[in-house]
Design goal:
The structure is a homodimer. Chain A is built from 3 helices and 8 strands; from the N terminus they run βαβββαβαβββ. Chain A is an alpha+beta fold. The first copy, chain A, has an 8-stranded mixed beta sheet with strand order 2-3-4-1-5-8-7-6.
């Protein structure tokens, strides 16, 4: 059902300090940093031999990342897997008894559709599933 | 410096129940389960499109996994990256100011050499580095 690992999300307090570790010391490639105002955070994506690390910094004390750090400290926040059909995946996970945070997929970064499964029903792991954006059909004009 | 993701280690209470989730519901391939008496745990390795999940169950209350679960509950325990030269990596990480749990590499599963970096110096992430076993040189008799 899960196709492959998309990324590992890590909650950090200071993005520049974390980039100094992951990019400068550990040698990962920093692909870019994007603001996510809807989720009140900014996200830096790094590549390490095809695996991705997503550093997440809260931009508001109400952000889920701020609340996570307040409760558990900095560290691994979630793990995200790519799926082919996120709606079919969510239906199957629900049928298997898992508790969904998002009953319907919602827009993520870069046009992906994403949804979270509650860690309560997944052995303490906050699991994200994500469907890659479909290529736009050609208009015939290009 | 880090070559690629080796696995994500997840602390679990009940290996069969966790396999029912990762193998049967999420569809990962269970490559095998090994006992690690030195670390007082058993480890089940699963593959998901080339990424690996390592489910870790304590076999003694003194195991680091038992202590982790007692303190933080079940969930993601560490993330492991493959490196080409673990001794050079540890020297570089130490020079960069990171605090090593293992100053020298120690034997891991399947002949790998492994070492951990303390989460205190890595933004709350327990980081493992691992060097793949070298192929034995041919004896000339085969």
């Amino acid at each position: 059902m899960l196709k492959k690992l998309a990324h590992i999300g890590i909650a950090v307090k200071d993005l520049e300090r974390s980039l100094a570790l992951y990019r400068d010391v550990l040698g990962m490639h920093h692909e870019g940093t994007s603001a996510e105002p809807d989720r009140q955070l900014e996200a830096a994506m790094l590549d390490c031999g095809g695996a991705h690390i997503e550093l997440l910094r809260a931009t508001s004390p109400d952000s889920v990342i701020a609340r996570f750090i307040e409760k558990r400290g900095e560290g691994i926040h979630h793990v995200c897997f790519e799926v082919d059909d996120i709606r079919a995946t969510l239906a199957a996970l629900k049928a298997a008894g898992l508790q969904l945070v998002d009953e319907q997929p919602r827009p993520g970064v870069g046009g992906w559709l994403v949804a979270f499964v509650h860690p309560r029903s997944a052995g303490g792991v906050l699991l994200e599933v994500a469907e890659r954006p479909k290529k736009q059909p050609s208009t015939g004009s290009d």
